[in-house]
Design a protein that fits this description.
Number of helices: 22
Number of strands: 14
Bound molecules: nicotinamide-adenine-dinucleotide, uridine-5'-diphosphate-glucuronic acid
Radius of gyration: 24 Å
Structural class: alpha/beta
Low-confidence stretches: 1-24
Helix content: 40-55%
Strand order of the largest sheet: 3-2-1-4-5-6-7-8
């Protein structure tokens, strides 16, 4: 097997002319199972293969696994195809629906399944439990079980208890919390060049194995945090909720700019020069979406409640965000004196952020709902997310391009900061639109040019 990996490595390096690849492809004897092959699981699996581990990616979704076996990437994520292809070619990554077999063939099991929000705000651990059931029924030797999914503080302790109750001997497994901090749209680069890797465990043996898994990252100088499981679990929620608070804060300041005529771009730039604040995550917008900030902030509030305490700051960020998500539609309605009945409105961008096809909790959903309630006719365009949005809004019109969407439109809302919306041809827009009315919910366009072309427009605090 080792010889085969070396041969594949040489082939890979010849094909891709990568000396770095040659160094990293020969370094690990571990086999890792990554259970759950979604946005995080797939990137984690291929990222761990890229640094020299042998990885089995397993998922219950047979369609997804078949696509991967056929060389088709089930999600839109820049750079993912290339790195999957090269690691398949190198023989370092395989795909299966046989979860039990992936577990029996591996020493380390990463759990990367979804932990969506329950109605009461808590994290739903049904999928994690199902993986644990398979581990319990198939375990065939010592395993390191790693929670890569975002799981509530205390889940590690609960997992230990759950497995023991299922008759799994304590000697057969150790638990590690290894939260993931990648962003969708930037996932491959974030995984391979993380700001930090957090490893929470009470087991020296598991820690040594995890150091081996992440050996290449030590070599490249990545900061590691070694801590206990509960602290590691807390770091993930504390980080996400902090970023959510930062976004709601800058959105509130942008709204104040709207009221006063100040310019949020200059305000945010000047704020960001203060190293304690940092310039990142200071772009106001239509509210944060995605599968994580909303659900993780809610889960944190639930945890606070369980511990008989309140977190008013976290709560406020969610309240502000709910209001913020109505702003783009409200701004458009204001520009039309509330009458958009039977008017064609173009929505540019459906994904919750650029460079992804993910629409979970996307503010575009709120915007479309409000506009439809007011009788608008929606023509939407997104470079990657239209198929996903069809499941929610099957009856709006999906267009083949920006200019297809805006043709004869009476108004436009830019919802997502895709690069192609930053360079809209305002002359063409002027020629094609019926009315030059626009809401730029991401502050992408040059307001001086919009004025020159005679647009009636609104922004998020940019003046
Ligand atoms: P996802 O929905 O894209 O993927 C989850 C996958 O798990 C699906 O493919 C599903 O079929 C599979 N699955 C469900 N039950 C299974 C089982 N019993 N066995 C095998 N596979 C099973 O979710 P995601 O966005 O990748 O998120 C996964 C976890 O990672 C969540 O806890 C999330 O909070 C966390 N996280 C996500 C991101 C992100 O950017 N999406 C970043 C950091 C952390
Ligand atoms: C976020 C975190 O950034 C990741 O570190 C974390 O791993 C992930 O959640 C997770 O736990 O799932 P993600 O949701 O993929 O990543 O994307 P972000 O880039 O954080 O954007 C989140 C939302 O904030 C988007 O709706 C985005 O448009 C919005 N945003 C972001 C702004 O409105 N302004 C900004 O300046 C930055």
């Amino acid at each position: 097997m080792k010889l085969r990996i070396i041969i594949y490595s040489i082939l890979y390096c010849t094909l891709f002319n990568s000396t770095q690849a040659k160094i990293i492809k020969e370094q690990s004897n571990l086999t890792i199972a990554v259970i759950g092959t979604g946005y995080v699981g797939l990137v984690t699996g291929v990222g761990l293969a890229e640094v020299g581990n042998k990885v089995i990616c397993a998922d219950v979704d047979a369609k997804k696994i078949q696509m991967l076996k056929n060389g088709i990437i089930p999600i839109y994520e820049p750079g993912l195809r290339e790195i999957v292809d090269s690691n398949v070619l190198a023989g370092l990554i395989t795909f299966t629906t046989d979860i039990a077999q992936a577990i029996t063939q591996s020493q380390v099991i990463f759990i990367g399944v979804g932990t969506p929000m329950n109605d009461n705000g808590s994290a739903n651990l049904t999928y994690v439990k199902s993986v644990l059931d398979t581990i319990a029924s198939s375990i065939n030797g010592f395993k390191v079980i790693v929670t890569k999914s975002t799981v509530p503080v205390g889940t590690g302790a609960w997992i230990r208890h759950y497995l023991e109750e299922k008759g799994v001997s304590r000697d057969l497994f150790s638990l590690v919390s290894n939260p993931e901090f990648l962003r969708e749209g930037n996932a491959v680069s974030d995984f391979l060049h993380p700001d930090r890797i957090v490893l929470g465990t009470e087991s020296e043996q598991a820690l040594e194995i995890m150091k081996d898994v992440y050996k290449m990252f030590t070599n490249q100088g990545t900061r590691f945090i070694y801590t206990n499981v509960a602290t590691s679990e807390t770091i993930k929620y504390a980080s996400n909720a902090f970023l959510a608070v930062k976004l709601s804060y800058i959105n509130e300041i942008a709204n104040l700019c709207d009221a006063t005529g100040a310019d949020i771009k200059t305000v945010a730039f000047a704020m960001g020069l203060d190293k304690r604040i940092s310039p990142l995550f200071l772009n106001p917008g239509p509210g944060f979406g995605g599968s994580c900030f909303p659900k993780d902030s809610q889960a944190l509030l639930y945890m606070a409640d369980q511990n008989h305490m309140k977190m008013p700051v976290v709560q406020a960020s969610l309240i502000t965000n709910e209001i913020q998500k109505t702003k783009p539609a409200e701004k458009l309605l204001a520009l039309f004196n509330n009458d958009i009945q039977n008017k064609k409105i173009a929505i540019l961008g459906l994904a919750f952020k650029a460079n992804t096809d993910d629409i979970r909790y996307s503010p575009a959903i709120n915007t479309i709902e409000i506009l439809l309630d007011h009788g608008a006719i929606i023509h939407a365009y997104d470079p990657a997310a239209m198929d996903n949005m069809r499941a929610i809004f099957p009856h709006i019109t999906y267009c083949t391009s920006t200019y297809d969407a805006i043709n004869q439109a009476e108004g436009i809302i830019i919802m997502t900061e895709w690069d192609e919306f930053k360079t809209l041809d305002l002359q063409l827009l002027s020629d094609l639109m019926r009315n030059k009315v626009l809401v730029d919910a991401r502050n992408l366009l040059d307001i001086h040019q919009l004025k020159e072309f005679g647009f009636i427009f609104d922004t998020m605090g940019h003046h």
